Amino acid sequence: MALPEWDGELTSVRYDRGTGAWFVIGVHSTRLGPASGGTRAMVYPSPGDAVADARRLAGAMTLKMAVAGLPMGGGKSVIALPAPRAELGEATWRRILEIHAANLELLGGNYTTGPDVGTCSADMDVLAGLTPHVFGRSVAAGGPGSSGPMTALGVFAAIRAGVAEAGFDGVDGLRVLVQGLGAVGADVARLAADAGAKLIVTDVDPARCAAVADELGAEVVGTGAVTTRECDVLVPCATGGLITAEVAETLPIAVVAGAANNLLADPYAAEVLRRRGIVHAPDFVANAGGAIHLVGREVLGWSADAVADRTRAIGDTLTGVFADARTHGTTTVTAAQDLAARTLTGEH
Q1: Could you tell me which residue ranges the Glutamate/phenylalanine/leucine/valine/L-tryptophan dehydrogenase C-terminal domain spans (predicted)?
Q2: For a surface tag, which of 8, 100, 196, 259 has the fewest beta carbons within 10 Å of its beta carbon?
Q3: Is 18 a known ligand-binding residue?
Q4: Looking at domain 10-128, what is its CATH homologous superfamily?
Q5: Would you place residue 319 in the very low, low, confident or very high pLDDT band (cuts 50, 70, 90)?
């Protein structure tokens, strides 16, 4: 496979004929400490797409750790499955986790992983029996449990900061569209509903939509309406690449803040959003609550309350990012990247 240049430190790629899975680990930076990032397991169009995703996500983790002030570097694992996980069977999945653990061991502690799309705390429990280089074990296994609630809390703090920057007096009465109703998206929806938002939801799983609509009185729209449905706040909590420059030109929104990694499909989309006056909370700032939860509890020994307070402070970080972007006439992505760069170089 042909791979483009990358500014990261290491890419590990392994194929296992027995399971048909490709294993990719991207270590982007160990400048602030050992690299860390979740394990994503899903079907990809090609091994090259899996490598590209791991590298993008690892770079975003470097920025996330730096902006959040955590003593860790950025990395990511991607397991490109031969079929959806539900179709693989328990024995095949167990073998995949064993191979993944062996790959982690080869890196000797320079990279530690946790749950991500397609994996969960129970999987981290299995990995922890095979390698010490794991975050995010279940509470029953002595870990801090799912990072989903803290990710959602941080995203909601980002929403609050975004609507304030856009000139709104709080979330009450605003139309908030949540895309993706997994563990994070569903919790964000609940927080928005509790704050008085007029909730709009969408998900590829109709059952999830129906459950959230019943629980919270949300309006359900089709997945194709995500970028065309008029609303005040768009909250992408599915996979990345939603907003291209072309999509950014017509988005009928005032604020975008969500949990999805690599939300922008191309860098120019951020400039289009800035030009149109749409407040954009960069994803690597908005979704840092999960990293704060795992690193704070398992590395730094913080209490649950300390983790929650640090996660809510994501809103303060974004308020500063928005101010810097306005002052210097840049996009919020550039302002947030500059903040991360200052941390990585010891200037912050």
Answers
A1: 146-346
A2: 196
A3: no
A4: Leucine Dehydrogenase, chain A, domain 1 (3.40.50.10860)
A5: very high
